[in-house]
Amino acid sequence: KINIPAFSSLGTARDELRYPRAGTKNATSDLKLMEVRVLENKEVQSRRLQLPRSILDLFQGEFEYVTNAGWTPAGDGVWVQLMSRKQDRLSTYFIPVDAFQMEDATASRHIHV
């Protein structure tokens, strides 16, 4: 079970979010993860993870916008909501953590604290 937050007004009225606003440039979004570990010597190690292809490229034009995302309760993956360009279709997908891979060879960071 995944609880997806609903951002709405109190009562029965709902807020409408049109994204992007007419006349403005389209934003670009992608889905990435940051893995952070504290080693025994108190060194903090982090690395950026990404999908092999952009989340929107995976759906080949079906969706234009990433509207929401979050962790599953078990922490084994993320859920992501995607919306069509006409903003008439909203779908939610599960992506397992192991689908993400290192962003590039220089993305790993070490900080000694």
Would you write up a description of this structure?
It is a single chain. Strands 1, 2, 6 and 7 form a four-stranded antiparallel β-sheet that branches. A three-stranded antiparallel β-sheet has the order 3-4-5, with no helix packed on it. It is an all-beta fold. Helix content is 0%, strand content 37%.
Quickly list its features.
4-stranded antiparallel β-sheet; 113 residues; mainly beta; single chain
Topology overview:
Blueprint: E1 32-38, E2 43-50, E3 65-71, E4 77-83, E5 90-96, E6 101-102, E7 109-112
Antiparallel strand pairs: 1-2, 2-6, 2-7, 3-4, 4-5
Please mark out the parts with pLDDT under 50 across 5 or more consecutive residues, or reply none: none
Number of strands: 7
Overall form? elongated
Q: Could you tell me the mean pLDDT?
A: 79
| Helix share, percent | under 10%
* Count of DSSP H/I helices: 0
What percent strand? 35-45%
Main sheet overview: 4 strands, antiparallel
Compact description:
This protein is an all-beta fold and 113 residues long. The chain has no helices and seven strands. Helix content is 0%, strand content 37%.
